[in-house]
Amino acid sequence: MPVLSPKDFTAAPQMAGYLFQCRYALLLLLEREPFDPACRVNIEKFDDVTVERLGGIVRSVQTKHHGGSAALTDGSVDWWKTLRAWCALRDAKRLTDSTILSLVTTATAPAKSAAACLRKDDDRAPELALERLRAALHATTSDDVKSTAAAFKGLKKAQQLSLLQKVFVFETSPKRKDVRTELKRHLWRVAEGHRLDACLDALEGWWFSRVAEHLEGGATEPITATELTLKVADIRETYRRGAIPDYVANLTPPRVNLANDRRLFVEQLRLIKANEGRQVAAVSDFTRAATQRSELVRKGNIDRLDLQQYDEKLCSEWRRLFSIRQNEVPLGAGDVELEKAGRETLTAVEAQQLSLRGFPEPYLMRGSYHSLANRWAGSTPTLGWHPHYGKRLTKTARGATK
């Protein structure tokens, strides 16, 4: 009995093919959008991808992605499956006189093959391609090819030629990951070069979500060039020179377990008797700000010096507000008064509008303050809220150098 491996059940090649198909659909729409704003695409409705206008299908595309090397021979099942799909479109009267049928494949068309005769070049010869396909079909002993080719074989020769005259083969097309390079070429007008990857990440994030919505709806509503235009404009505004994008806008809030949270900034909140809702909000701000700051540096929007200078500005404003509130605390104040003063200091700090390079979302400032409250400066926290935080929260008092 053969020994099975998890690799025997992998769907990785199929997934790579689906991603290639989705990315190629985006590329098609990006290419047409500037000069054909009325166009739209459908995925898995009439074909792998169709580009349409109100008058019908402009371009119908079959995508074939191979992880390794592959050849598009006249006996290739890929070929005959593609032709079967286009015969179905023809029978459904979905093709117009101007419809282009495109086979986009990462495979290579061998010399003297039908596919080689259908490239978009000066050697294009649909009549010769038909001869080679008919000869291959006559010679084949493959039951798979015979059954798949039945629809094409059932056409008259003139109908077969008419179909092939619409066909263009784009061989050795960029593989899934390389389509990103092509996509970036179309985004040069949206962002500066060093921000193109981040810009494309944002566009693809929207696109894959939109494709999922399209497919879940039964592909009844196409994705329009207008939608793409609006999204690109939105990304352009986000990634304009000097602008800072929000990388955590769709971040799922973390699950909070306050009872077991021993981080220093949470201890600071407990020290001033901040209620549970305020602690949960602080943990969320802390997490989002930490992720946003990391992504801004990683993707080149800012550098670490920018963050250092921002933190210094926050500390300067904290010192001013902390001193004002501390000056109002009477000598000999009890715990209740001290805790209230701490909460008022935190409220005053969170009410500021200190942005990082114009970034408008307040969670970044609030979370950065909690990040500073989570750091040590020697044996005491960098900053705090309780008037006596430096005495109440020390490394020695906590029993560890956390």
Please describe the structure with a list of short key phrases separated by commas or semicolons.
6-stranded mixed sheet; single chain; about 400 residues; alpha/beta; two-stranded antiparallel ribbon
Secondary structure topology:
Elements: H1 12-32, E1 40-43, E2 49-53, E3 56-64, H2 77-91, E4 100-105, H3 126-139, H4 143-148, H5 150-153, H6 157-164, E5 167-170, H7 176-185, H8 196-216, E6 223-224, H9 225-238, H10 264-271, H11 276-298, H12 304-327, H13 335-350, H14 363-373, E7 376-377, E8 380-381, H15 389-392, H16 395-398
Parallel strand pairs: 3-4, 4-5
Antiparallel strand pairs: 1-2, 1-6, 2-3, 7-8
Describe the structure in your own words:
The protein has 402 residues and is α/β, with parallel strands linked by helices. The protein has two domains: 8-180, no CATH class; 258-398, no CATH class. It contains 16 helices and eight strands. Strand 3 (56-64), helix 2 and strand 4 form a beta-alpha-beta unit. Helix 12 crosses helix 13 (335-350). 33% of the residues are buried. The mean pLDDT is 88.
Number of helices: 16
**How would you describe the shape?**
elongated
Span between termini: 56 Å
Major sheet: order of its strands? 5-4-3-2-1-6
Average pLDDT confidence is 88
Strand content range: 5-15%
* Class by SSE composition: alpha/beta
Kindly state the percentage of residues in helix. Answer: 40-55%
Largest sheet: 6 strands, mixed
Whole-number radius of gyration?
A: 31 Å
Number of domains: 2
H/E element order: HEEEHEHHHHEHHEHHHHHHEEHH
Q: Count the beta strands.
A: 8
Give unreliable regions as ranges. Answer: none
